[in-house]
Write a structure and sequence with these properties.
Elements: E1 4-7, E2 10-12, E3 18-24, E4 33-39, E5 46-52, E6 58-59, E7 67-72, E8 77-82, E9 91-98, E10 102-104, E11 108-112
Parallel strand pairs: 2-11
Antiparallel strand pairs: 1-3, 3-8, 4-5, 4-9, 5-6, 7-8, 9-10, 9-11
Length: about 110
């Protein structure tokens, strides 16, 4: 059974940094791509970044330069490093993996506030 478990969210001050993690219960080579989405209160879920098994990493325009997605193929973990956090980054962040179907984690809340 495929499980994705996010962690690393919390309350962070503007300008700060943190790293979100997504632990996967199976080999991440099982998926053609993995990514991060986020959903802010009252807004639709939006793509933040994704990394294919083969190919280039892609970022949403509004996070490019501050967000960095990476994967550890040994630990079967996906990461999202976020720098220079802004209040508008406040959202629930979801990890997703694309295989025969799309898999989603339960999300981790990130709040950016002073």
């Amino acid at each position: 059974q495929v499980q994705l478990v996010e962690s690393g969210g919390g309350l962070v001050q503007p300008g700060g940094s943190l790293r979100l993690s997504c632990a996967v219960s199976v080999s991440i080579f099982s998926f053609s791509s993995m990514g991060w989405f986020r959903q802010a209160p009252g807004k639709q879920r939006e793509l933040v970044a994704f990394v294919p098994t083969i190919g280039r990493t892609t970022y949403a325009d509004n996070v490019s330069g501050r967000f960095s997605i990476s994967r550890d193929n040994v630990k079967n973990t996906l990461y999202l490093q976020i720098n220079n956090l802004k209040p508008e980054d406040t959202a629930v962040y979801y990890c997703t993996a694309k295989g025969r179907v799309d898999y989603w984690g339960q999300g981790t809340q990130l709040t950016v506030s002073s």
